[in-house]
TrEMBL record, chain A:
InterPro entries: AA_ABC_transptr_permease_3TM (IPR010065), ArtM/GltK/GlnP/TcyL/YhdX-like (IPR043429), MetI-like (IPR000515), MetI-like_sf (IPR035906). Part of the binding-protein-dependent transport system for glutamine; probably responsible for the translocation of the substrate across the membrane. Pfam families: BPD_transp_1. It comes from Pontivivens marinum. Keywords: Amino-acid transport, Cell membrane, Membrane, Transmembrane, Transmembrane helix, Transport. Residues 19-208 form the ABC transmembrane type-1 domain. The keyword Membrane applies. The chain crosses the membrane at residues 20-43, 64-82, 189-211. This is Polar amino acid transport system permease protein. It is a multi-pass membrane protein. GO terms for molecular function: transmembrane transporter activity. GO terms for cellular component: ATP-binding cassette (ABC) transporter complex.
From TrEMBL, chain B:
The keyword Membrane applies. Its main location: membrane. Keywords: Amino-acid transport, ATP-binding, Cell membrane, Membrane, Nucleotide-binding, Transport. PANTHER family: AMINO ACID IMPORT ATP-BINDING PROTEIN (PTHR43166), GLUTAMATE_ASPARTATE IMPORT ATP-BINDING PROTEIN GLTL (PTHR43166:SF9). One of its GO terms (molecular function) is ATP hydrolysis activity. Belongs to the ABC transporter superfamily. Pfam families: ABC_tran (PF00005). InterPro entries: AAA+_ATPase (IPR003593), ABC_ATPase_HisP-typ (IPR030679), ABC_transporter-like_ATP-bd (IPR003439), ABC_transporter-like_CS (IPR017871), MetN_ABC_transporter-like (IPR050086), P-loop_NTPase (IPR027417). This is Polar amino acid transport system ATP-binding protein. It is found in: Cell membrane. Residues 4-243 form the ABC transporter domain. GO terms for cellular component: plasma membrane.
Length: 221, 251
């Protein structure tokens, strides 16, 4: 069988539209997941037993189950429970935000825990009140330390987002599969789709290494 | 009344008792150097004085004010206004890595003393210049040598005008060639009349800076004397053994 990539040019706008959709819901889910994840990480360091347990169960559940099942669950079960009609786009954003929040909270939690107790000692020796300690000493260091991990999460979520094609969301993957079915050329089209994912994902992974090397120099003083 | 007064201090870590009725006094013209074998509780003593450790009994006073009072059960009482008159420098610098040198110096005066930004910065620059660090104000801790970091840490503590400074092995983490600059900074402080309590393993430096040397072992003061007496003519056998040991190791 001869490979022929030329026909792909006819589909470039459809593919780009799929990519645009992917980028939109991934970005939204990342931003919401970042905020939600930070709140969760605080919950998980809470001394309140109920808050601690609920948030821990939540995080472990979302980290320990397949994203695909989470997607199905939000798509088909959530509307029934809440008796609402959600658009596909909204459902995808909700599902991926809930998932990325769980992952993100772990990055923040690890960063919070990695701050040496001597930093707290220094704060007390300088007479810093607890709020100042948290806001000006602990939080900025936690965020800096979490950045490399957070960026890796971005790359993973971007790739895992291809799963939403399974619930009929017209993302890049879904568009690719559709074209493949129509023109009966799955090898070329799926290769092309992979290359598009790669073209976005690769610079992101490079950015992670770059930022990591730079930040570690500053943070590990 | 003594400037610093520690009465009947009791300190435990779980079931491990570090101090069981420890007493110590120091006058405001003293620079007291604590020496003793590893694990005898020198760091613990300074940490208790700084208010970093919960104590199970006794009192610690500064200028006649008992600012820390231990409690066998529940929390000790701590007077934060007096605590703020004590400054401490640690072995591993503990600078804030995300802030510049200037940021490290200005954080506490601005955020907990309500000092204005320009006042804080002026004061910081003055201190940095005094320590020969004027050109490092914009640097981050990771861009400094160990000796510079430690001098910045000293300057940071001085921003709050402490009445007593605690130094816990501040040169132990440094390369030998960087020890001098930090010791010089401390000597300069000493000459300016700052009361200090210093923990060090460097007996030469101890002899130079101290007005009082306290030899401590297993949570007890074994001998306290002027440096020439304690190093030149120790009264206790255990002091003599200890000094013989460390001076041999030092060569
Ligand atoms: N946080 C802690 N929890 C439990 N035990 C501790 C803790 N900190 C110190 N200790 C113990 O208390 C004792 C005194 O420790 P400390 O650090 O005060 O000794 P030191 O005289 O400063 O020794 P060094 O010269 O090695 O610094 C040691 O036996 C140590 O193991
Ligand atoms: Mg020590």
């Amino acid at each position: 069988m001869a490979l022929d990539f030329a026909f792909l040019l006819d589909f470039r706008w459809v593919l780009l539209k799929g990519l645009w959709t992917t980028l939109q819901f991934v970005t939204l889910a990342l931003v919401i997941g970042l905020v939600w994840g930070f709140v969760l990480s605080l919950f998980r360091t809470s001394s309140n037993w109920v808050i601690y347990s609920l948030s821990t169960i939540y995080v472990e559940f979302f980290r320990g189950t397949p994203v695909l099942i989470q997607l199905f669950w939000i798509f088909f079960c959530l509307p029934l429970f809440l008796d609402v009609n959600l658009s596909d786009f909204t459902s995808v954003v909700i599902a991926l935000s809930l998932y990325s929040g769980a992952i993100t909270s772990e990055s923040f939690r690890a960063a919070l825990k990695s701050i040496e107790s001597s930093q707290h000692d220094a704060c007390i020796a300088l007479g810093l009140p607890p709020t100042v300690r948290t806001l000006f000493v602990i939080l900025p260091q936690a965020v800096l330390r979490a950045i490399p991990n957070l960026l890796s999460n971005v790359v993973s979520l971007f790739k895992e987002s291809a799963l939403v094609s399974a619930v009929g969301m017209a993302d890049l993957m879904y568009v690719g599969q559709n074209i493949a079915n129509n023109v009966a050329r799955p090898v070329e089209i799926l290769t092309a789709v992979a290359l598009i994912y790669f073209a976005i994902g690769f610079p992101l992974t490079r950015a992670v290494s770059f930022v990591e090397a730079r930040l570690l120099k500053v943070v590990k003083a | 009344m003594a400037f610093v007064e520690i009465n009947n201090l009791i300190k435990r870590y779980g079931s491990l008792t570090i101090f069981d009725g420890f007493d110590l006094t120091m006058s405001s013209t003293d620079r007291l150097v604590l020496i003793g074998p590893s694990g005898c509780g020198k760091s613990t003593l300074l940490r208790c004085m700084m208010g970093l450790e919960d104590i199970a009994g006794g009192t610690i006073s500064l200028g006649g004010d008992p600012y820390i009072t231990g409690a066998e059960r529940g929390k000790m009482t701590l007077d934060k206004t007096v605590q703020k008159e004590v400054g401490m420098v640690f072995q591993h610098y503990t600078l804030f890595p995300h802030l510049s040198v200037l940021g490290n110096l200005c954080l506490a005066p601005m955020r907990s003393r309500g000092m204005g930004k320009s006042d804080a910065q002026d004061k910081a620059m003055e201190l940095l210049k005094r320590f020969g660090l004027g050109d490092r104000a914009k640097f981050y801790p990771s861009q400094l040598s160990g000796g510079q970091k430690q001098r910045v840490a000293i300057a940071r503590a001085l921003m709050l005008d402490p009445k007593l400074m605690l130094f816990d092995e501040v040169t132990s983490a440094l390369d030998p060639e960087l020890v001098k600059e930090v010791e010089q900074t401390m000597m300069e402080l000493a000459e300016a009349g700052m009361p200090m309590m210093i923990v060090t393993h460097d007996m030469h430096f101890a002899r130079n800076i101290a007005t009082q040397v306290v030899f401590q072992e297993r949570g007890k003061v074994i001998e306290a004397a002027a440096p020439n007496d304690l190093f030149g003519n120790p009264k206790q056998d255990r002091t003599r053994d200890f000094l013989k040991n460390v001076l041999n190791i030092e060569g």
